[in-house]
Amino acid sequence: MSSTSNLGCAVVAVDGSEESMYALRWALDNVHLRSPPADSSELPGSFVVVHVQSPPSIAAGLNPGAIPFGGPIDLEVPAFAAAIEAHQKRITQAILDHALEICRQKKVVTVKSQVVIGDPKDKICEVVESLNADLLVMGSRDFGAIKRMFLGSVSNYCANHAQCPVIIIKGKGKEEETSS
């Protein structure tokens, strides 16, 4: 990346956490997108705020595996699944609304949003690749070693698998937050 002012697409991954919103603010303050002259045919750069939503069955805690004692393989109550999906959509919309409000407050107008469903590790990397992004910015929850071992680290995975440079923003420490 030779110049941070020639970026055509910067993807910022948000999950609703304070850390991801802090990373969004950091990106809006520090990442400079391409701004071609008016007579140029080149398009201006844009930020893409991406949120990965879990599939409804995972969010509901439903295991698609076999149920012991002869139960059906796919147990799904349509009304329950629909309620979970509607709830997820409301949460996703609230996350995007918050992120886009941050963009409006920073007076950033070239922002797009995208929602994908699946595993955040894979889906963020897929979005970066499909958009041919120049940069991925994301927050880090700074899990300890035990949590990281069981839950994995989305930011670490993306840093190793995304097809563009990745900036991982660590959120303010609790002592910094209380002193501001």
TrEMBL record:
InterPro entries: Rossmann-like_a/b/a_fold, Universal_stress_UspA, UspA. Pfam families: Usp. Residues 11-170 form the UspA domain. It comes from the Eukaryota. PANTHER family: ADENINE NUCLEOTIDE ALPHA HYDROLASES-LIKE SUPERFAMILY PROTEIN (PTHR31964), OS02G0760500 PROTEIN (PTHR31964:SF122). This is UspA domain-containing protein. It comes from Linum tenue.
